[in-house]
Amino acid sequence: MTYQALINGARGLVYFGGNVKGAMTPEDAKLGWNWTFWRRVLRPVVEEVGNRSPLAPALVAPGSKLPVKLDGADDVEFCVREAGDDLYILACKREGKTIEVKFHGLPSWSGDGEVLYESPRKVQAKAGTFTDWFAPFDVRVYRFRRRATGQDTHEPRER
Fold this sequence. Notes:
By secondary structure, this protein is an alpha+beta fold. Helices cover 19% and strands 28% of the residues. It is elongated and about 55 Å long.
């Protein structure tokens, strides 16, 4: 739900429920807080979207004007952000079957895209298009870095 909120424009997140005794282990109940949930689930997510993460620049960037589209699924939500020389695509799937989707409309300079938090996995954009698989409740963060060449290889963008 964190990524779904970010994809749909959230600029701040609040988590609650750590004090709900019915959801705690007996050890956590003695401490009065669900530390097991924090360590296993919530802390990793907070670190992924925190201000020290590789995703941080994209989280404060405005939505991109690039004409990126997705084919192959009605239940995959995504957004595109540009930060510095990087292009980010955040995507998440709701319920349903595992499917292959195709993103297209990326800039011509897009090539290898890093799949953040799944290192060393990458995707390869060719002619502004790449495909990937999504299972129910999967989340992906793709980062494409502008190649350093001797020429200007990018399409204009708003700053």
